[in-house]
């Protein structure tokens, strides 16, 4: 992976997805049916199995310039040459320029990383995890369903920040903003704000539900 001091660039096939934001370390299952993307997958499966996922903003009619590299870790060919693939997010990248448009878009990209920090981020991560547990507990109470966090919830601050960001639903622009941040502390602080707001909203609904019973 490239550090901030040594920038590595490479050409990368690009796959724009409407309102989908991929984060490092997170899985993304896809079904490939468009002809140009079937060509792309057949090509990358013969090389390093990597391509770039960029969020396509339908309101703006364009894709983001910062995305996440996806690596195909499993694939299954279906009838009519369609394909089911399971990918895993790798490093993030910034598109510097487009070098080809057909049959699919290829960009020249540079890898980006969070800036190194000498600050202890563990208290921030512990706070975010506790807020997450509060949100899950209140959601379970409201819906009368068993909802649990996975046993393998990341403990490292940066990886936890990616996990939380990838599990925010219905807010792709917010997810894109979190993906573009290059400071782990700033990302965790923003997630703490989002989770606090969600917890307070759920707590108020829980009080109302209890009062009506």
- What is CATH's topology name of the largest domain? Archaeosine Trna-guanine Transglycosylase, Chain: A, domain 4
**What percent of the residues sit in helical stretches (DSSP H or I)?**
25-40%
Low-confidence spans: 1-6
CATH class of the largest domain: Mainly Beta
Q: Roughly how many Å is the radius of gyration?
A: 19 Å
Distance between the termini: 55 Å
- What form results from the Cα inertia axes? globular
CATH superfamily of the largest domain, please? LON domain-like
Which structural class do you get from the secondary structure elements?
alpha+beta
Share of β-strand residues: 25-35%
Major sheet details: 5 strands, mixed, barrel
CATH architecture label of the largest domain: Roll
Number of strands: 7
Q: Strand order within the widest sheet? A: 1-3-5-6-7
Descriptive report:
By secondary structure, the protein is an alpha+beta fold. It has two domains: about 10-110, LON domain-like (Archaeosine Trna-guanine Transglycosylase, Chain: A, domain 4, Roll), CATH 2.30.130.40; about 120-210, no CATH class. The protein is about 40% helix and about 30% strand. It contains five helices and seven strands, in the order ββαβββββαααα. It has a five-stranded mixed barrel. The longest helix has 29 residues, at about 185-210. Mean pLDDT is about 90; it is low at about 1-5.
Quick structural overview:
By secondary structure, the chain is an alpha+beta fold.
